[in-house]
């Protein structure tokens, strides 16, 4: 999805690739072609590191696995690190249920709003109010509009001489041209960028692109969460963020996040929604990666040497048994929140915040 993936010729025999294939969602080939009726193939999860279980065990008797360390004095709850991955920190359940729900709402309503860019910009230009338009059952339709046409309204996008506008389904029936439902666009939303905008084609931050600062509340949260990975007296400065949206079967291939100037500063990664498997490898794809569960509310920090480690997400669990989002379902059960609940029941959102310079 993003990051350094230049070595496409890497053989599937690399240790990282084998782990990706091991945990990736596959269906029984004898099952129905309908995804809803397909039965996922079973996967062995016995070697997946579970920091929530480690935390519970540590709280009971103070015991830890031999390769795991714990830090108590840099955050309000225990922070775990790995002896063989310096600069990697895991904070299980760092986000309150209320904060998780608030961030889910913002990720769907506010974070994809222009001037923030999304994966849809390349085709449709800036799209305003996507989540609200999806709730109302609107359709995005194409209308040719010559360059130099009057300024577009907030419900319009403009890209390559094409004007895109949200209309009702009834209006869409009498129009010609291409169209796509807002709900389909919402489900195909894969990323949005906050703060300094990342140029995906050039793989750098383009300070010339219009942008807003990262919301103050998110900045304050990131500064607090980053403390375990920061030297004493030094404050993390959030300047850019990427929000990833995962649906059923989506993955994030092994990559490095290497476009920031100072790798000693952490990437602050927040997990929301359905449980996932995270792979943390080494400095080459040949290094066998560690697999670990990421649940809603977990936070990962990667700084220093950990920034040189390949990592990715080969699997999210959207089935009721394994998604582990009962707490979100209870919190989002109010009528006004049912639209968010419907989305997050089969999705995962990851917000990763960076100090760019």
TrEMBL record:
InterPro entries (UniProt xref): Alkb, AlkB-like, AlkB-like_sf, Oxoglu/Fe-dep_dioxygenase_dom
Coiled-coil intervals, chain numbering: none
PROSITE patterns: FE2OG_OXY
Gene3D superfamilies, per the entry: Alpha-ketoglutarate-dependent dioxygenase AlkB-like
Gene Ontology biological process terms, A to Z: oxidative RNA demethylation
Keyword check for Lipoprotein: no
Domain (Fe2OG dioxygenase): residue spans on this chain: 237-357
Cofactor binding: number and manner: Binds 1 Fe(2+) ion per subunit.
GO molecular function list: broad specificity oxidative DNA demethylase activity; ferrous iron binding; oxidative RNA demethylase activity
Keywords, in A-Z order: Dioxygenase, Iron, Metal-binding, Oxidoreductase
Residues annotated for Fe cation binding in this entry: 255, 257, 311
Names of the cofactor(s): Fe(2+)
One Gene Ontology CC term in the entry: cytoplasm
Family that this chain belongs to: Belongs to the alkB family.
Protein name as catalogued: Fe2OG dioxygenase domain-containing protein
Gene source species: Arachis hypogaea
